[in-house]
Each structure stands twice: as structure tokens, then as C-alpha cells.
């Protein structure tokens, strides 16, 4: 298992979010890609779409099943990663290097109030050493 | 209150799956691996070389006695007299209304003995059905002339599948004659000591499968299965799980009971007419099936290919314009074709051999209508060899 990066925060639904300034990159964790298996389709939300925390930011499909990735925080899609649309297996090989989207955070965003986990807490959630 | 699901049963190979890192799921009441490394890799191994599946969950029903052949001819739409100890026959098993109880393989075990290999999920239903029909067939229970017995616990089954499968099996001591088996035939072999444990082991070998590739299905006593499994892996077979089994059978358009076939779906609707022997004067379901065959069924199974990259899934609605005309029975990403595909049961308003066209066909995927083209089944055919 690859290490869980401590430069970002995590949602219990197995997305990561890396906040710099007013921009938040959102992706799926290594644990998530492992559980999903070989990804064959990834469709990140389009630029301009407004999402609330908990709304889908991407449709992900493995050979067997479809599932959504959810926005850990609210915002408006500023960047949609077309590389993972063209090659969904990037999410399997490099989950922490390939965000699904980058969100413009709503003004007044408070990371501490978003109910996110740090790397250690996320590691504990999935029963892994950080 | 619903009772909680009982703990899944274990096949004789459970410990092998766990030690190989198999991701175990409950399938038809059995703990089985959905994958070991990854579905795509296992799928490709079967298409390119040889994969090994544990299919010990499959159930076996022995039908024997002097009346057994006459009974099976009445029970099943296939011509069971062709099951002569060499030929293996695939057949649906139908209700009188043509609906499909299950689909199965028929083997010959002796002069008056046949073996039906049925789906694990249908084991209890099938055993009850066959026993009930047997009682009705002889008019009164006549154990001396016709016996039906669930013998599932006597068999483990391994499926060795792929273009290299038969040559690989022939390297097992005692199995050098396996390549002489033609497609859809069976043979009895004895594995030499060492191949499946310290003693010689009887093996029923069937050149059949559920992947669209050449390959073998191997039946043996459960206690010998782990040793044979390890021997085949050592010879180079790649362990493959339920995920690849499903994606392989899907590309080959082999029906999965509960999806393409069900109690309320007939084999004519599912496109299995070639497995029905209408020259037999009588079999369960014949009148309805013959009428559907000659006059056209009101729906039929088709292949659909979305124009975009969306992936159809079982249950997705199929529309012609705005009108719903059916549903996807199985849908997934096809590893070989590199795109999403679906099999669907749709209205068939025009009779004839070919499926009727579906004007403005679309599959509703993630609540969006995705335009789709009607494509021939199967999606994948293995390349001709030699």
C-alpha cells in the first residue's frame, strides 16, 4: 500500500482534497481505487458546475460497477481533468497525482468546519498505518 | 423480519483463494474470489493464454435408471440421445409456458446415468423441479426405474480456459489424451500420482467453457481439487475470478441466468433457438417455444453499442425515441473491444430471423439518453485456429 500523503485532507467517502488558497483539488484515494478495481471510465464534472459538499464530482466505472466520487467541499468546478477521461487507468496508477477536478471554494470557506480527516485519521479509518 | 443471510459456503479451494490474495465475495451462497490481481489482467490472460477458475459452486444433479433417457427427453428441449459418452450437450430447461428454469450441461456417466450441471444459484429450485417432474413423469414414484439425486457435494470443478488451456492440461501426467477431445465432448481420465496429490485421481474432462475461448472444465473429487489447482498454476495457468468470468462470458454473449435468462424469459427470446430440438414430438415448453419460433417472439435479446463512452449496466432502460422498449440485461466495459456494450431484451415488433431495428435507439445511462447502435451478438468471437 502506498503511503497516505499528509499534504491534504480526506473524506470518509475516500476522496482527498488539497487546498491552496481558494482552490481545492479533489481526487480519490489509493484505497478507493483499489476497492474500485481497474477503472475503465472516468467523467469528471465539467468546468462551471457548482457543487455542494456531498454532490458527485465524477462518474467512475470499473469493469464491474459504476460509482460516483463526491465533493468533500462546496465550490465551482474550475478545472476538469481530461487526462483521466482519456485514460482512466491513471486513477489506478497515480491516484494522488491525478485530481478529478479543482474547485473554486466559496468565499468564507472554513476547512476546519468541513469535517475532513487528516492523513493519520484517514489511515485509521481504513485500518492502515499512515 | 428477514433472516440474516447465512455465512457463505466455502468451496474446497477457499484457502487457495485467500492465500493468493483473492478478493472474496458472496456469490450464490459461496465465498468466491471476484478477482486476484485485477479483472482486466485476468480477462486478457484467458484471451491470450490460459486462465484457471474455481467453479466448484456449480451444482450437479444425477439422473439415472432405465427410464432416465425418456424422462430427460421430456424434461429438456435438447436431444439427450446425442449425449453418448462423448458429446456434451448445452440446453435450457423450460417450464410448460416456455420460461427458463435454468440452463445446463448434460453429461453421460454410464449406460443409464446422466449428469446435469446447473447454476449454483438455482440448485434448490432445479433439484425440486427435476424431482417433481420425475414424479409426474412416471405417474407414481418409481425409484427402481428413475432416480434423481443432488450430487453437488461429490464434485469440485475447475475451468481451465484460453487458447493455451488444452496444451497446458496435456502436460498433466495421465492427461496427454486431452487434446484428442473435440469441442463439446467429454472424456474420463486418471491423473497419475503427483498431479493432484499422492494418489491417482479420476477426472471427468469436458472441452467446454463459459469464456468464448477453447478450454476444459475438469470435474473431480473435492479433496483432490486443491492439489490439482496448484499443479495447474505451476504449469502457468493464471488464476482468474468471477469478475473476469463475467466479462469473458459477456463478450461471448453467453447467457447468465438471472440476466439474459429467467423464469419469465424463454430461450427463443434469449436467442437460443439453435439449442431447441423441435423434431422431438414433446418436451416441456415445446408448444409455446415453437409458436414463438415460427411466429416471432414479442421480445428478443440484442446487442447494443453506445456511440459515446458511457457504459450500459444491467437494468438501464432502452428507448426508441421517447418510448421505452426494453432493458439492458448485462452491460459492462468490454476489455477486448475497449468500450462499453450491453445485451438487452427489447420489444421485437417485426418477426423474422434478424432483430427488428430500433429507430432512434438510446440507453438511459446516469439519467442521460445515450444513443446506441444495434450490433450483432456475440460481441467477440475467438479467432479461428490453424
What's this model, at a glance?
The complex is a heterodimer of chains A (130) and B (386). Chain A has 130 residues and is α+β, with helices and mostly antiparallel strands.
Protein model, in words:
The complex is a heterodimer of chains A (130) and B (386). By secondary structure, chain A is of the alpha+beta class. In chain A, the strands form 2 sheets. Chain A has a 6-stranded antiparallel sheet with strand order 1-2-3-9-8-5. The longest helix of chain A has 7 residues, at 30-36. The relative contact order of chain A is 0.27. Chain A has one domain: Beta Barrel (OB fold (Dihydrolipoamide Acetyltransferase, E2P)), CATH 2.40.50. Chain A is 18% helix and 35% strand. With 386 residues, chain B is an alpha+beta fold. Chain B folds into 3 domains: 9-56 and 155-250, Gyrase A, domain 2, CATH 3.30.1360; 59-154, Alpha-Beta Plaits (2-Layer Sandwich); 255-375, Beta Barrel (Elongation Factor Tu (Ef-tu), domain 3), CATH 2.40.30. In chain B, 19% of the residues lie in helices and 32% in strands. In chain B, the strands form 4 sheets. Chain B has a 6-stranded mixed sheet with strand order 11-12-13-10-4-14. Chain B has a 6-stranded antiparallel barrel with strand order 15-18-17-16-19-20. In chain B, helix 2 packs across helix 7 (242-251). Chain B starts with 8 loop residues before the first strand and ends in an 11-residue tail after the last strand. The model of chain B has no long low-confidence stretch (mean pLDDT 94). Chain A binds chain B through residues 37-38, 40-41, 43, 59, 61-66, and chain B through 34-35, 38-41, 43, 243, 246-247, 309-311, 313, 332-333, 335, 340, 366.
Individual helix count of chain B? 8
The total domain count of chain A is 1
Write down the CATH class of chain A: Mainly Beta
Q: What kind of oligomer do you see?
A: heterodimer
What share of the residues of chain A lie within helices?
10-25%
Radius of gyration of chain A: 14 Å
Distance between the termini of chain A: 10 Å
**Strands in their spatial order, largest beta sheet of chain A:** 1-2-3-9-8-5
Find the CATH superfamily of the largest domain in chain B.
Probable tRNA modification gtpase trme, domain 1
Low-confidence stretches of chain A: none
Q: Which term fits the overall shape of chain A?
A: globular
Average pLDDT metric of chain A: 92
Secondary structural class of chain B: alpha+beta
CATH topology of the largest domain in chain B: Gyrase A, domain 2
**Tally of DSSP helical segments of chain A:** 4
Count of folded domains of chain B = 3
Q: Tell me which protein chains meet in the greatest interface and how many residues each side has.
A: A-B, 12 and 19 residues
Q: Give the name of the CATH superfamily of chain A.
A: RNA polymerase II/Efflux pump adaptor protein, barrel-sandwich hybrid domain
Radius of gyration of chain B: 21 Å
> Which sequence of SSEs, written as H and E, runs from N to C of chain B?
EHEEHEEHEEEHEEHEEEHEHHEEEEEE
Amino acid at each position: 500500500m502506498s503511503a497516505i500523503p499528509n499534504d491534504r485532507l480526506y473524506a470518509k467517502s475516500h476522496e482527498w482534497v488539497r487546498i491552496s488558497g481558494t482552490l481545492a483539488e479533489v481526487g480519490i484515494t489509493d484505497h478507493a481505487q483499489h476497492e474500485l478495481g481497474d477503472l475503465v471510465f472516468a467523467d469528471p464534472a465539467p468546468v462551471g458546475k457548482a457543487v455542494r459538499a456531498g454532490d458527485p464530482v465524477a462518474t467512475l466505472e470499473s469493469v464491474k460497477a459504476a460509482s460516483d466520487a463526491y465533493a468533500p467541499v462546496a465550490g465551482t468546478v474550475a478545472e476538469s481533468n481530461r487526462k483521466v477521461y482519456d485514460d482512466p487507468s491513471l486513477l489506478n496508477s497515480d491516484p494522488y497525482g491525478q485530481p478529478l477536478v479543482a474547485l473554486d471554494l466559496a468565499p468564507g470557506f472554513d476547512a476546519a468546519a468541513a469535517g475532513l480527516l487528516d492523513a493519520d485519521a484517514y489511515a485509521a479509518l481504513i485500518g492502515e498505518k499512515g | 423480519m428477514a433472516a440474516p443471510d447465512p455465512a457463505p459456503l466455502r468451496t474446497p479451494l477457499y484457502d487457495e483463494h485467500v492465500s493468493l490474495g483473492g478478493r472474496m465475495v458472496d456469490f450464490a451462497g459461496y465465498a468466491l474470489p471476484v478477482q486476484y490481481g485485477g479483472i482486466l489482467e485476468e480477462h486478457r490472460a484467458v484471451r491470450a493464454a490460459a486462465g484457471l477458475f474455481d467453479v466448484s459452486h456449480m451444482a450437479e444433479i444425477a439422473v439415472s435408471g432405465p427410464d432416465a433417457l425418456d424422462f430427460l427427453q421430456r424434461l429438456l428441449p435438447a436431444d439427450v440421445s446425442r449425449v453418448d459418452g462423448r458429446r456434451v450437450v448445452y440446453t435450457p430447461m423450460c417450464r410448460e409456458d416456455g420460461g427458463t428454469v435454468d440452463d445446463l450441461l448434460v453429461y453421460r456417466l454410464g449406460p443409464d446415468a446422466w449428469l446435469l450441471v446447473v447454476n449454483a444459484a438455482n440448485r434448490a429450485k432445479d433439484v425440486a423441479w427435476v424431482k417433481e417432474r420425475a414424479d409426474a413423469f412416471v405417474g407414481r414414484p418409481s425409484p427402481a426405474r428413475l432416480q434423481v439425486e443432488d450430487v453437488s457435494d461429490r464434485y469440485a470443478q475447475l475451468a481451465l480456459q484460453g487458447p493455451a488451456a488444452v496444451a497446458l492440461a496435456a502436460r498433466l501426467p495421465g492427461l496427454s489424451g486431452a487434446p484428442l477431445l473435440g469441442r463439446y465432448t467429454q472424456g474420463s481420465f486418471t491423473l497419475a500420482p503427483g498431479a493432484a496429490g499422492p494418489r491417482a485421481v479420476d477426472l471427468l474432462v469436458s472441452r467446454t467453457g463459459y469464456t468464448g475461448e477453447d478450454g476444459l472444465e475438469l470435474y473431480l473429487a473435492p479433496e483432490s481439487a486443491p492439489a490439482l489447482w496448484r499443479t495447474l498454476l505451476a504449469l502457468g495457468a493464471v488464476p482468474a475470478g468471477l469478475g473476469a468470468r463475467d466479462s469473458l462470458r459477456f463478450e461471448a454473449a453467453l447467457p447468465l441466468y438471472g440476466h439474459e435468462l429467467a423464469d419469465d424469459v424463454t430461450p427463443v427470446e434469449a436467442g437460443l433457438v439453435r439449442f431447441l430440438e423441435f423434431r422431438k414430438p414433446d418436451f416441456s415448453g415445446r408448444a409455446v417455444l415453437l409458436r414463438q419460433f415460427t411466429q416471432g417472439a414479442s421480445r428478443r435479446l440484442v446487442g447494443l453499442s453506445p456511440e459515446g463512452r458511457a457504459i450500459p449496466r444491467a437494468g438501464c432502460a432502452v428507448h426508441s425515441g421517447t418510448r421505452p422498449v426494453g432493458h439492458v440485461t448485462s452491460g459492462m466495459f468490454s476489455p477486448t473491444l475497449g468500450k462499453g456494450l450491453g445485451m438487452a431484451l427489447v420489444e421485437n415488433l417485426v418477426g423474422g430471423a434478424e432483430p427488428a431495428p430500433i429507430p432512434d435507439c438510446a440507453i438511459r445511462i446516469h439519467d442521460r439518453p445515450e444513443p446506441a447502435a444495434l450490433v450483432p451478438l456475440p460481441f467477440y468471437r475467438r479467432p479461428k485456429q490453424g
